[in-house]
Amino acid sequence: MNLDLTPKLPKKIYAGDAGSYHAWSPSELPMLCEGNIGASKLGLEKNGLALPCYSDSSKVAYVLQGNGVAGIILPEKEEKCIAIKKGDAIALPFGVVTWWYNKEDTELVVLFLGDTSKAHKPGEFTEFFLAGPKGMYSGFTTEFVSRAWDLDENSVKSLVGKQSGHGIVKVGANVKMPEPKKEHRDGMALNCEEAPLDVDIKDGGRVVLLNTKNLPLVGEIGLGADLVRLDGKAMCSPGFSCDSALQVTYVVRGSGRVQVVGADGKRVLETTIKAGNLFIVPRFFVVSKIADPDGLAWFSIITTPNPIFTNLAGKTSVLKAISPAVLEASFNVEPDLEKALRSKRMSDAVFFPPPN
After folding, report:
1. How far apart are CA 206 and CA 209, in angstroms?
2. Which of 165, 92, 172 is closest to 129 using CA atoms?
3. How far apart are CA 181 and CA 179, in angstroms?
């Protein structure tokens, strides 16, 4: 199995004074196509508006930086206008129309990871805009739009043809944008930096899982997600997804070393990962990470809404569940060495603090 798992940075798709849109390409990161996964990143400057659009893929959005407002319109539902901030995760099912706005001085940056199994192009998101020169109405004749909207043709030409900006535009200071409503946020977003911890190991690391319990909408998109924060020099136990899920990881902060082992016990990746990198672990491959002194944090989507992982080290290690005689025979070692292995890591699970 010859797979290129090298972490990659995204490429700019379009940009202007109001913001930019970057995406990872399957031609540079083949595992995107292999796993039917898309990945992109939106950056909005002050007063930047990402025009209303829908996508051919279900996604999880994660706010990497800043504060802003998101407009989310589920099919045949009213618009949800929610305040978003760093650490927020938002599930976006098929058919959702969204817009994004930043009124702050700090750039608003949003990561999108999603499932492209039903997309036009495997490994890529295709966005369908409702406005702008590439908006869906620009492709219809004036007659069709006039009849659909019940407007005269001059009004239609103005509505369809006046917006020259593609994808992202700057909103004038005199335009009063909608204010977010607190009640709209319920069930739509979860802040992974403030949510109760699912795993908390002193000097090791912390995990917040995004699943159907704390954000039911992830059940509709068929994806789970997690935010993992690994302390300086700590290690994440070698493990794999035992329910055939693919893990797509974006490095949010810090740096560290990663190793991935695949079929036939071959190491298929050994590299340093740093903030901004995206890499993908194939199904059933075993991955482990060790943080650099400043720590390491990553946000991942897993291609099942309630993932199950098997650890190969620590107190929850599958090795500790295997009969001693079987382990002795399997590794061809004496009982004393098997006992030594079993007696270690009796209190550490998932994350291992740095050695003294």
Report:
1. 10
2. 165
3. 7
